[in-house]
């Protein structure tokens, strides 16, 4: 009705008005409006009958009267107010300031209208004065916001220069006020990032759509917020920082000190990497390459290259064992992370910055927990107690295993078995146990010393201590692992035999021979399952500490507005006749999405060791390897 | 302008619909679900405690009883904070977007806001739910790639599940506001 007629009225305007006819929606709007002075402002295109939204910062709601400065977004018919310019001012200086800000931030900042906060002044003179300003700074549409002292309800008017001649429609629009917290919107980051992440020098316009345009505008206009009331500038502005620019001495000192510290640490880390590479390959070439700080990628490539057994065949056993131990994996992972954190290049975008911060916090927490563990271990001589308890436990386990084997070699649970095969396998396993017990007794004088030195490694981090524990368990239970391998291979053969004979099985005779090795594998599997469970738990814990983004979670907990999933609106008190007022707040990201977005890449063994695949492997007789295979995905 | 009406949900429970017309371009609909009933709460608590007492007589360990109390408390808190929704609100603002808020019994509020540029239409759809055919209101989102396609369907009032009469009221109001969006594009 009224809406349709306004559209036709606008379309029916004479040729003199052709410049301000509403453009079709897919035309590229001119977002850098030239500083406002003469003629019809080019940013005058708007969608007719769309409600005009004025985004007003909450910090300016109590400011004195003045001019509204901000950006006009024609496609959404919204005006983003960034600051208020107070009286007295000289129009030329205001225009100069706006031109400067526009050049620095590449955002089309302009004077949008007037703001009137009536306290005690008589209304008439101010009213006329403000209307006169509309002639100096022409902008289409011209906003006039007014607030009475002590009243919650505001009055807003948006007038258009070119008033259509048809009397049925007025030159005014419906206005909706949306309040926003400028500081939070400035510091927050929308997920998913709606604006293009790459801001090249030639890319002048803010290409975000929707509400992301508001966030983008505020974030880019930092140049406008740099002056405060205590500056002796020609123009006095009101914005979120106008009562004093926010800064912290500690942050400034940290920034100043970060440069030299990072340089020092990168040199140290490259020395450490070179030293560990040299230990494997004693040739002069790699040391020379290591001292080139820029070629870190090549250094890591060479480090991995030395781990491949095909290249260093004379040191093959050592490097093979090296690559299988989880401690070495963990140390290498930590070294890579530290190199990334302390690299002298600045982070290119917010995601990289978050990643660096997450790694740093994770390393610090790891070291702190490791030191706590260290202090606990060295108190009350716990290491001595542990070493004393180790030998009897090993003896006890060996005795139990021997009893079990004796029982199996006889007639277990009354079953009649193939004596010859039983005796062979039983004796084979008993010899294993005998060797292992001899080895443990040989090592017994050195165990306390080894444990003490291993305990010292906890100061490198809790994850390193856990990896060492996992490696020790693996080495101590190696014999059980051997039994498991033999049993699993035989069981696997049996399963294949059964599945291929299933067709014969139906209707043919029962083959008792196949049942022999079953009980042997099942019992050993129980023992092995316990060990594998413990190892799996340790690996999962290490992966959790490695990959949890602690800094992002802390940020979500303490400063939820920094990580934004979107916005939410709240309708403020409303009175018939006055414009609608809304409060725009930031909707923080949920914890699960924070973890999912900022998850650090871990050592990559997590998908292999899930519980489902573990059970499947046990059932079908596939071998479970307690160390990382070469085919596993590396960081 | 405020207005309250009583409707029923698909299982026969009582729902209260509160409508607020702030302005011709902004409307809010608030559906309150039936509260947690004392009868079901007592029944669940008694079952859990009887089972715990049975276990206690079997194994003579008093930890079972304290564990049962702990589990009941934690379960109730978790239910109130994560599962039980008290009120669902739909706020539709012309040329800004549509906002859905769910308030849980513990006071937690979870909000989703969809910008008007992404909304294609608001429709009433049919669905097969267990053994019934029910109606539900949903928002169709535009597909950025294909101009006439629908990329996602967002259902509304999922825990209140009102019947068709309530949905028709909400649908009519929403269409009045959405008509403002479609009018300029047809007249141009």
From TrEMBL, chain A:
GO molecular function annotation: glycosyltransferase activity
Database matches in Pfam families: Gpi1
Ranges annotated as spanning the membrane: 359-377, 424-444, 450-476
UniProt region (Disordered), positions on chain: 14-44
InterPro entries documented for this protein: PigQ/GPI1
Keywords recorded for this protein, A-Z: Glycosyltransferase, Membrane, Transferase, Transmembrane, Transmembrane helix
UniProt key word Glycosyltransferase: yes
The keyword Kinase appears for this protein: no
Protein name (Swiss-Prot/TrEMBL): Phosphatidylinositol N-acetylglucosaminyltransferase subunit Q isoform X2
Taxon lineage: Eukaryota, Metazoa, Chordata, Craniata, Vertebrata
UniProtKB/TrEMBL annotation, chain B:
GO molecular function, one term: glycosyltransferase activity
Pathway(s) served: Glycolipid biosynthesis; glycosylphosphatidylinositol-anchor biosynthesis
Residue ranges of the TM segments: 36-56, 62-82
Biological processes, Gene Ontology terms: GPI anchor biosynthetic process
Keywords: Glycosyltransferase, Membrane, Transferase, Transmembrane, Transmembrane helix
Gene Ontology annotations for the cellular component aspect, listed alphabetically: glycosylphosphatidylinositol-N-acetylglucosaminyltransferase (GPI-GnT) complex
Keyword Hydrolase: no
Limits of the Phosphatidylinositol N-acetylglucosaminyltransferase subunit H conserved domain: 89-158
Family listed: Belongs to the PIGH family.
Name recorded for this polypeptide: Phosphatidylinositol N-acetylglucosaminyltransferase subunit H
Organism: Vicugna pacos
């Amino acid at each position: 009705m009224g809406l349709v007629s306004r559209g036709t009225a606008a379309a029916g305007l004479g040729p003199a008005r052709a410049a301000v006819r509403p453009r079709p929606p897919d035309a590229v709007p001119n977002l850098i409006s030239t500083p406002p002075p003469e003629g019809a402002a080019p940013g005058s295109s708007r969608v007719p009958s769309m409600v005009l939204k004025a985004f007003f910062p909450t910090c300016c709601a109590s400011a004195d009267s003045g001019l509204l400065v901000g950006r006009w977004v024609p496609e959404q018919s919204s005006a983003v107010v960034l600051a208020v310019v107070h009286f007295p001012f000289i129009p030329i200086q205001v225009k100069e300031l706006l031109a400067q800000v526009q050049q620095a931030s590449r955002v089309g900042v302009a004077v949008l209208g007037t703001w009137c906060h009536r306290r005690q002044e008589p209304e008439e003179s101010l009213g006329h004065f403000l209307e006169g300003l509309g002639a100096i700074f022409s902008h289409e549409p011209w906003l006039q916001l007014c607030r009475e002292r002590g009243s919650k309800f505001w009055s807003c008017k948006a007038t258009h220069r070119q008033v259509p001649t048809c009397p049925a429609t007025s030159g005014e629009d419906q206005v909706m006020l949306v309040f926003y917290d400028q500081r939070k919107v400035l510091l927050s980051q929308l997920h998913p990032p709606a604006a293009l992440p790459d801001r090249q020098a030639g890319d002048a316009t803010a290409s975000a759509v929707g509400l992301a345009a508001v966030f983008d505008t505020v974030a880019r206009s930092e140049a406008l917020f740099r002056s405060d009331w205590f500056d002796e500038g020609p123009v006095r502005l009101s914005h979120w920082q106008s009562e004093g620019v926010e800064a912290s001495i500690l942050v400034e000192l940290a920034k100043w000190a970060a440069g030299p510290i990072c340089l020092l640490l990168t040199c140290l880390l490259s020395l450490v990497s070179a030293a560990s590479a040299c230990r494997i390959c004693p040739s002069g070439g790699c040391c020379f390459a290591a001292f080139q700080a820029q070629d870190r990628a090549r250094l890591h490539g060479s480090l991995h290259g030395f781990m491949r057994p095909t290249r260093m065949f004379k040191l093959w056993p050592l490097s093979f064992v090296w690559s299988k131990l989880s401690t070495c994996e963990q140390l290498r992972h930590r070294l890579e992370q530290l190199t990334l954190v302390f690299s002298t290049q600045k982070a290119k975008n917010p995601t990289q910055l978050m990643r660096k911060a997450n790694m740093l916090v994770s390393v610090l927490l790891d070291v702190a927990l490791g030191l706590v563990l260290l202090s606990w271990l060295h108190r009350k001589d716990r290491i001595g107690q542990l070493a004393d308890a180790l030998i009897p436990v090993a003896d006890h386990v060996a005795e139990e295993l021997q009893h079990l084997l004796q029982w199996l070699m006889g007639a277990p649970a009354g079953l009649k078995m193939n004596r010859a095969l039983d005796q062979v396998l039983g004796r084979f396993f008993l010899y294993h146990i005998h060797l292992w017990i001899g080895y443990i007794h040989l090592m017994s004088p050195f165990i306390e010393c080894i444990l003490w030195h291993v305990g010292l490694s906890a100061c490198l981090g809790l994850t390193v201590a856990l990896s060492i524990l996992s490696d020790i368990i693996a080495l101590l239970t190696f014999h059980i692992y051997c039994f498991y391998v033999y049993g699993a291979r035989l069981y696997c053969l049996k399963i294949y035999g059964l599945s291929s004979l299933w067709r014969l099985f139906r209707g043919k005779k029962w083959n008792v021979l196949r049942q022999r090795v079953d009980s042997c594998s099942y019992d050993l599997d129980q023992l092995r399952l316990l060990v594998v469970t413990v190892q799996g738990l340790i690996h999962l814990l290490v992966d959790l500490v490695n990959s949890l983004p602690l800094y992002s979670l802390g940020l979500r907990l303490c400063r939820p507005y920094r990580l934004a999933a979107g916005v939410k609106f709240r309708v403020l008190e409303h009175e018939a006749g006055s414009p609608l007022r809304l409060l725009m707040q930031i909707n923080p990201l949920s914890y699960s999405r924070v973890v999912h977005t900022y998850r650090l890449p871990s050592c990559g063994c997590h998908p292999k060791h899930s519980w489902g695949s573990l059970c499947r492997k046990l059932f079908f007789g596939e071998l479970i390897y307690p160390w990382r295979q070469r085919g596993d995905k590396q960081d | 302008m405020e207005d309250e009406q009583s409707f029923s949900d698909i299982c026969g429970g009582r729902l209260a619909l509160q409508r607020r017309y702030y302005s011709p371009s902004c409307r809010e609909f608030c559906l309150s679900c039936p509260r947690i009933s004392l009868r079901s709460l007592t029944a669940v608590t008694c079952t859990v405690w009887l089972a715990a007492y049975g276990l206690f007589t079997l194994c003579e360990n008093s930890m079972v009883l304290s564990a049962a109390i702990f589990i009941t408390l934690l379960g109730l808190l978790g239910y109130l904070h994560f599962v039980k929704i008290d009120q669902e609100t739909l706020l539709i603002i012309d040329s800004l977007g549509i906002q859905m808020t769910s308030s849980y019994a513990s006071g937690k509020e979870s909000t989703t806001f969809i910008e008007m540029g992404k909304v294609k239409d608001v429709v009433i759809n049919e669905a097969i739910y267990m053994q019934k055919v029910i109606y539900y209101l949903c928002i169709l989102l535009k597909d950025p790639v294909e101009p006439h396609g629908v990329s996602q369907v967002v259902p509304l009032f999922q825990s209140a599940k009102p019947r068709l009469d309530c949905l028709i009221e909400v649908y009519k109001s929403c269409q009045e506001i959405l008509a403002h969006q479609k009018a300029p594009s047809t007249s141009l």
